[in-house]
Design goal:
disordered C terminus, two-stranded parallel sheet, 191 residues, globular
C-alpha cells in the first residue's frame, strides 16, 4: 500500500480525530483516533525514531538529527493541497474506531521505516508501513490536530514499566498535562 495523502479533522462532539489517508491505487481508509491512541502514536513513533538513531549516533546527536528531519518536513509540508477522495473504501465509507496501535521499527530495502498496526473495531487489523519522511509528515498532521483539540502531549518516561494506556475517561481538569508513557516495550499493544 503506497500512501498518497493524509487528511484529518478534530470533531469536538466526538472528542476524536477523523484521520484518513488515500493510496496510489485509489483506496481510502478512514479511522477514528481517540486521544489515548493519538498521543501514544505520537510519543511512541518519536521515541522509536530517536532510539534507532542512537544506534549510530550519540543521544544528543540523535535528538538533533530527528529535530532537523522534523523541521525540514515542516518547511516542506503543504497543508493547503486539496485532499482527493478515493473511489474504494476497504473498511467502508464511514470511519472505524482504532482501539489500539502497535508501532515497530523495520527495515525495508535497507531503509528505516515504521510499521503501524492498528486494531480496528469489527475489522482485521490495518497494518501500514511508512518510510520515515512519510511518518514525519503524518506526525505533523496529527500534532496539529492534537493541538487543535488541546490534548497536550504524551512523553516517554525513563522507566521500564510495561506500557499503560491512559484511561478512556478521565476526570482531570488539566487536559493539557502530558501523560507519561514508559520507554521500554513501546511496541507492546495498549491495554
Amino acid at each position: 500500500m503506497s500512501i498518497k495523502q493524509f487528511n484529518g479533522n478534530y470533531l469536538p462532539g466526538e472528542d476524536r480525530l477523523m484521520f484518513r489517508f488515500n493510496t496510489h491505487n485509489n483506496s481510502e481508509y478512514r479511522l477514528w483516533l481517540s486521544r489515548r491512541v493519538t498521543l501514544f502514536l505520537l510519543a511512541a513513533t518519536e521515541h522509536l525514531v530517536e532510539q534507532r538513531l542512537t544506534q549510530t549516533h550519540s543521544a544528543p546527536a540523535a535528538k538533533a538529527i530527528a529535530q532537523f528531519a522534523q523541521d525540514t518536513a515542516k518547511s516542506q509540508a503543504d497543508f493547503s493541497v486539496q485532499y482527493q477522495v478515493a473511489m474504494h473504501f476497504p473498511l467502508g465509507h464511514d470511519p472505524v474506531l482504532a482501539t489500539d496501535v502497535k508501532c515497530t521499527m523495520v527495515q525495508v530495502d535497507g531503509t528505516d521505516a515504521m510499521t503501524l498496526d492498528f486494531a480496528i473495531t469489527n475489522h482485521p487489523n490495518l497494518i501500514i508501513t511508512l518510510a520515515i519522511p512519510t511518518l514525519i509528515t503524518m506526525r505533523l498532521l496529527l500534532e496539529r490536530l492534537a493541538d487543535k483539540a488541546q490534548w497536550g502531549r504524551a512523553v516517554i518516561a525513563s522507566t521500564s514499566v510495561p506500557v499503560q494506556a491512559a484511561p478512556l475517561d478521565t476526570d482531570s481538569d488539566d487536559a493539557t498535562q502530558a501523560e507519561r508513557l514508559p520507554a521500554e516495550k513501546i511496541s507492546k499493544k495498549l491495554h
